[in-house]
Design goal:
alpha/beta; Rossmann fold; 8-stranded mixed beta sheet; two-stranded antiparallel ribbon; about 30% helix; globular
């Protein structure tokens, strides 16, 4: 049985070689203070929001303030890292905890932290961290409670939702990892929507591994969420439902994907979306020409528009609408030879050309 951390007005700040100190602020207050001090560059946090008392978190993996700059592509790094290597750095624990999962909470649109708000749950990609992934919601102006959980598996530079990569040959292990993450987060949703004042069911989005898990939750646990907006993700065939949506209304799914994605190719996503549509699931796939494995400004604009409409519909008790389907445009020959944007993808392309 999992235990929940109780609320406390302090949070640990541990320094190497020194006893831990206590700050008279909760995790949310510390997170806001870091942003105000410029220590968490690019985070979607609003320093003017009044912090409120939070739970103290003792994290087995120390929470190190993120380096500056965006991190919206998966890390091209070794599979594992040693958590102990981080203990020699100063750290401030900015995470909350619910159902034994760490998370960061952001309040948008000038809302009060303890107000009853629509909830948006955003899942980062492999090797990322909640406080870095939060930047893609910077400036979102609708009142909402944005919850960014940390992946349940340690990975170089941050966290992951499962160990096996999508391109690995261990298909069975990959499917088991996705399933375990989706089921674990479904439990987290049950807890967080009770512990934090929430209007309706949460809206779910995620990038890369977070997009894969978003697809899986929408199809395995449709009763838990109001809508799902996966970015650069897909649903493995082994997890395709055998029948149409259950008695509960299936959450609308809007998938965003670049057609030049070399890390998570769009073709499997097309097949998964076609299968779900054939089964009667409300799914729309929006493809972005010449876009590699990343979140572009155009993607973010559509995502914000969709999340904004979804939160308004949730408040009003109305169904959430999806944008219309669009015909896929053919890519030009020049676009087909364009290199992916991430450093790891460029190195893989160069190696494959050298072998050819």
């Amino acid at each position: 049985m999992r235990t929940r951390a109780c609320r406390a007005p302090t949070v640990d700040v541990a320094l190497s070689g020194a006893p831990s100190a206590q700050l008279a602020a909760g995790g949310r207050g510390v997170f806001a203070a870091l942003v105000a001090a410029g220590l968490c560059a690019g985070l979607a946090c609003e320093p003017q929001t009044t912090p409120h008392t939070a739970r103290a978190v003792t994290s087995p993996v120390p929470a190190v303030p993120a380096p500056p700059g965006p991190s919206l592509s998966p890390a091209d790094a070794p599979e594992e890292f040693e958590p102990e290597a981080l203990y020699d750095r100063p750290r401030v624990d900015i995470y909350e905890i619910a159902d034994d999962i760490r998370y960061v909470e952001l309040i948008t649109g000038g809302a009060m932290p303890e107000a009853e708000l629509p909830m948006v749950i955003a899942l980062h990609g492999r090797g990322d961290r909640p406080e870095r992934f939060a930047q893609f919601l910077r400036g979102f102006d609708r009142p909402a409670r944005v919850v960014l959980p940390a992946g349940i598996v340690p990975a170089t530079g941050g966290f992951a939702w499962f160990k096996i990569r999508a391109r690995d040959r261990d298909v069975e292990g990959f499917v088991e990892g996705v399933t375990a993450a989706a089921d674990r987060l479904a439990e987290f949703i049950d807890v967080i929507t009770v512990e934090r004042p929430t209007t309706g069911k949460p809206v779910l989005t995620g990038f890369s591994q977070g997009g894969i898990v978003s697809f899986a939750i929408a199809t395995r646990h449709p009763e838990k969420i109001a809508a799902a907006y996966p970015i650069g993700g897909w649903l493995p065939p082994a997890l395709w439902p055998e029948a149409g949506p259950p008695d509960v209304a299936a959450p609308p799914i809007l998938a965003l994907h670049g057609d030049a994605d070399a890390v998570m190719p769009v073709a499997p996503t097309r097949r998964a979306v076609s299968k779900l549509q054939a089964l009667g699931f409300p799914v729309v796939l929006r493809e972005y020409q010449d876009v590699p494995h990343q979140i572009t400004a155009e993607m973010r604009r559509l995502l914000w528009k969709q999340i904004s409409a979804a939160t308004l519909a949730i408040r009003a008790g109305n169904p959430i609408q999806l944008p219309p389907r669009m015909k896929r445009r053919r890519r030009t020959a020049a676009a087909q030879t364009q290199l992916p944007a991430s450093r790891g993808d460029r190195s893989r392309v160069k190696r494959s050309r050298a072998r050819g």
